[in-house]
Amino acid sequence: MGSYRQSNNQHSQQNTSANNNHNCNCHHSNRNNCNCRGKEEVVVDPTRTIVNTNTRKRVVKHVHPTEVINVNRTVVRNEHFFPVSEREVNETVEENYNCGQDPERRGNCRPFWSRF
């Protein structure tokens, strides 16, 4: 970084105002050799910036819960059986016919329905 120095005119004006009637044109490089020994030249350098960083650690705990479900499954197998049994039944069916008055004439028979 470079230094900031006042120009000769400003420097002369400051020295003149401080010395009133004394005209001193001293330059920075040879100020010990000039005849204005009671005067001090002020050189203002640019501000130096120093950054101090204070770091502190912080712990943030992240909890990620997990639920495990254990399923105990029972499968019931229903087996259906249809056993068949067989049996014999003797059935008698009666049919009633009206065959008229002559038992010798069979061809003349009609089904007879009972009304009661």
How many helices? 1
Multimerization status: single chain
The helix/strand class is little secondary structure
- Quantity of strands, as a count: 2
Gyration radius, to the nearest Å?
68 Å
Kindly describe this structure:
The chain has 116 residues and is mostly loops. The chain is 10% helix and 3% strand. The protein contains one helix and two strands; from the N terminus they run αββ. A two-stranded antiparallel sheet has the order 1-2. It is rod-shaped. The N and C termini lie far apart (139 Å). The N terminus is likely disordered.
Task: Walk me through the topology.
Elements: H1 8-19, E1 97-98, E2 110-111
Antiparallel strand pairs: 1-2
Task: Summarize the structure in short.
With 116 residues, this protein is mostly loops.
Q: Which key phrases capture this entry?
A:
116 residues; little secondary structure; two-stranded antiparallel ribbon; 1 helix; 2 strands; disordered N terminus
